[in-house]
């Protein structure tokens, strides 16, 4: 954990954090607006350290509101060619470190669709507590995209880091 934080501090000028296998390189720091559910959003490329290839992307959404409860405070997407290597898990661990150590967040919510088995397994592997499976409200943009239910996983970061 301290090593990851040191790597974050060393990488501040490059806007990247790494675990030695992947790195999250800051692509955008979006101020709150209606496009990001009124939450400051840090958008990262996920890159392989050795090849520097972009293999996905992830976001850390700072704050909590009605919309983010269904969307989650962390989002990720790993490109199909690079799936199956726990990349999403590794990216979330780096985002946990950032959220806790840099932004002082004690808890996070991450969501997934109930039929998204790989994401569900990732969220369980991250030691999340499945709080509930909820219906997406019809006025939420996720409903308009076709999402009808969300698994809401809760992470108490303070407890998570106390156990390490």
Summarize the structure.
With 164 residues, the chain is of the alpha+beta class. Helix content is 31%, strand content 34%.
Please explain how this structure is put together.
By secondary structure, the chain is α+β, with helices and mostly antiparallel strands. It has a single domain, classed as Gcn5-related N-acetyltransferase (GNAT) (Aminopeptidase, 3-Layer(aba) Sandwich). The chain is built from 6 helices and 8 strands, in the order H-E-E-E-E-H-E-H-E-H-E-H-E-H. The chain has helices at residues 2-10, 66-71, 87-102, 117-125, 141-144, 157-163; strands at residues 16-18, 22-30, 40-48, 54-62, 74-78, 107-112, 129-135, 149-156. Strands 1-2-3-4-5 form a 5-stranded antiparallel beta sheet. Strands 6-8-7 form a 3-stranded antiparallel beta sheet. Strand 1 (16-18) and strand 2 (22-30) form a beta hairpin. The longest helix is centred in the middle third of the chain and has 16 residues, at 87-102. The model has no long low-confidence stretch (mean pLDDT 89).
Topology of helices and strands:
Blueprint: H1 2-10, E1 16-18, E2 22-30, E3 40-48, E4 54-62, H2 66-71, E5 74-78, H3 87-102, E6 107-112, H4 117-125, E7 129-135, H5 141-144, E8 149-156, H6 157-163
Antiparallel strand pairs: 1-2, 2-3, 3-4, 4-5, 6-8, 7-8
Q: How many DSSP E strands? A: 8
Strand order of the largest sheet: 1-2-3-4-5
Q: Which fold name is given in CATH as the topology?
A: Aminopeptidase
CATH class membership? Alpha Beta
H and E string: HEEEEHEHEHEHEH
Distance between the termini: 8 Å
Characterize the biggest β-sheet. Answer: 5 strands, antiparallel
Number of individual domains: 1
Strand content: 25-35%
Uncertain runs are: none
Average pLDDT metric: 89
Judging from the principal axes of the Cα atoms, what is the shape? globular
What is the number of helices?
Answer: 6
